[in-house]
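I have been asked to look over a protein record a colleague put together. This is what I was given:
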Amino acid sequence: MDYPEKTCSVERLVTVPEDVQKVLEGKKTATRRNGVYAYPGEIMTLDGQDFEVKNLYQQTLGEVTEEHARQEGFENLDAYKDSILSMHEGMKWMPKMQVWVHEFSPVKN
């Protein structure tokens, strides 16, 4: 698949301390961003642990399901929405808004 140019770097993919902890605990296996931060095969290092980006695809916010919210480390879709909207002041949940889904998993040593 042809991906667009990255808008940020893999080091910026997961930066919120609570999210980093969720990744390290295996509770967060995906993150959604408004741009491409990493391509499949890239390595993200958090607290000395490596995670490989396995999948990258686009989705609209309206397509985000309860299961997707759990991949993001939340109990349910409402908790995920509340978290996103609290991080981005003035943002509205727009079902047609496109985001890039970055799925990752721990690298086994």
Summary: The helical segments are 17-24, 66-71, 77-87. The longest strand covers residues 49-60. The two ends are 28 Å apart (CA to CA). The CA atoms of residues 40 and 104 lie 9 Å apart.
